[in-house]
Amino acid sequence: MSQTLPMAGAPANANDVGLSKNDYRGAPSTLCQGCGHNSISNQIVAAMYEMSVLPEDVVKFSGIGCSSKSPTYFMNRSFGFNSLHGRMPSIATGTLFADAHLKGIGVSGDGDSASIGMGQFKHAMRRNVNMVYIVENNGVYGLTKGQFSATSEQGLHLKKQGENPYMPIDICLEAVVSNATFVARTFAGNPKQVKEILKAAFSHKGIAVLDIISPCVTFNNQENAYHSYAWGKDHEEPLHEISYIAPRNEIILEEEMNEGEIREVAMHDGSVVVLKNLEKGYDPTDRMLALKSLEEAQQNDWLLTGLIYVNTEKPALTDLYNLVDTPLNRLTEEELRPEHSMIDKVNELMF
Length: 351
Description:
Layout: H1 36-50, E1 58-62, E2 79-82, H2 88-98, E3 103-109, H3 110-114, H4 118-127, E4 131-137, E5 140-141, E6 147-148, E7 157-158, E8 162-163, H5 171-177, E9 182-187, H6 191-203, E10 207-213, H7 229-235, E11 236-238, E12 240-245, E13 262-266, E14 272-277, H8 287-300, E15 303-310, H9 333-336, H10 340-350
Parallel strand pairs: 1-2, 1-3, 3-4, 4-10, 9-10, 11-15
Antiparallel strand pairs: 5-6, 7-8, 9-15, 12-14, 13-14
Helix pairs in contact: 1-6, 2-4, 5-8
């Protein structure tokens, strides 16, 4: 396929829509230096730039927490909505139904989604809302001085909180059980994998849940803490190597990928996610295998990363309704008002 040329007058490093990488940045971060959330924001910037996404075609959502500050730090040309604690999925569902031409990126946290927002999280999965749902998971409430979160591992000891007596919630396991159509886990300390998974998630039509382990350098970065940089680097168990290939490019597999089993997963927009299995013949389209693998990883204290589950057949929320081409939020009063004959017909049926 022919490649789109940058717009006239675009900078030399412009992508296919004539934008530079700086056009995808946001405000300077106010999070702690070294916070994993900042690394994730940087990879969102890189992924959107490399995919030549128009920022105006993306809308950002968040709830409350350190993680929910993140949309300020990327894509300042995109509209955004910072909602109430745990209520981000409702705002996203309404927005993306009102204008089905937009793509959503929601950034939440382990408290925002796995505690107060668990019910809303579940219903976003069930409805298959067309958005990338990122959980920046640090296993602690960093914004409110370091209390345990719902994803904190049992036995975690924090200086001011004592020892956590409860079993953690597994974001990916909850997403697969709730029938999400794209589920992946990655680690903020592995930026290449984060970027490739972000690209694949953005090209997916429906809900794409990314559980990104994102260390809190202030309250939860002890070497033995499951959400720390040291533990993540020592215990990461990648399922496969991931490469994202845009629909406009010819599909070419590099020679190094011929050493292992290769599986191509075609996305709705014609792009392809290429997975090279490292050890097991892992099939991300097998839901039962995903559940089994997540349970096994939990029992063995593995940080299982990669594309855990994907289903490209299930229709997205807006595909279930006979929507008109014009976004609902741009229809005029005259267009929304039913014809008098239609009102008469409805009245006849009722009375």
